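Hey, resending since the last one bounced:
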Amino acid sequence: MSVSNIRGLAPEVLGPTITVGEILVEIMATTVGTGFLAPQPLVGPYPSGAPAIFIDQVARMGGSAGIIAGVGNDDFGRLNIERLRSDGVDVSAISIIEDKPTGSAFVRYRPDGARDFVFNITHSAAGDVRMTENAHALVERAGHIHVMGSAFAIPGVAEILNHAIQTVKRRGGSVSFDPNIRKELLDAERGRRLLDDILAVTDLLLPSGEELLVAADRTDEAVAIMKLLDSGVSEIVLKRGRKGSSFFGRDHKQIDAPAFTVDEIDPTGAGDCFGATYLTCRRIGMEPERALLLANAAGARNVTRQGPMEGVSSLAELESFIATTRTESVHE
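The structure tokens again:
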């Protein structure tokens, strides 16, 4: 039996990893400052959207991958579809929506490193994800589904994910969850219930920083980890940014992996590349320690490129990166 079976992560033999959510283009200001209140030079468009970045990285790592999403019948949509297709993603379940533009995000960095965004998602094709015949076929083939917390802001996505999760689980497949939901969105009873429902079927949880505490509704890291593992989560992989990452298993095993020392150019997509790399490595049976190191490398390498999908990596590229890049000390 493979390691992935033991840990509850469906192996590749069951079918592809799939995800659901927004596809968009990102257009970036070349100046540092606040907002978009004056004309300024821009670069882009870059293919983007957290689910798209994630699934592109799965494919670049050699995993079988597909996405359910929507784009407009425009150059931005074609840019994204061709990029995903060329990297090996199954794009058959991406709807081309005639009367809506492809989603977009304009981004500008502030002097403190924070970012200002102007989004067009809700009223674009990115906010119109449809369960087409091709989407149904993709779900029926899938062995794993990755859930992005941000996708729940799109109308109808919760129902699509619920159907996909039930179908994949019925086939013996598995679920990963990146709970990138802000705490204020969970204050309402529906938000908390939605999060708890996803956690109840999650095999691999991929929180960043305080998202772990929000997910567990606890204030202490160790207590939060124990609660989530006791509730049925098989693995927790905590992204700690510049402090690396940590694995927690149901056998109470903890593994820490250091971050890599790089010059950051654009952090967008680093967490998605991290999660996709870790998951893909585990689905092919790689041990957590090695998967964690490769995931750290994927996140670090991604931030050295401008554009959220420009730093996606193959396994060979990650091996070379690890061999030539210095690591930080493991978190204290």
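The mean pLDDT is 91.

Sorry for the duplicate.
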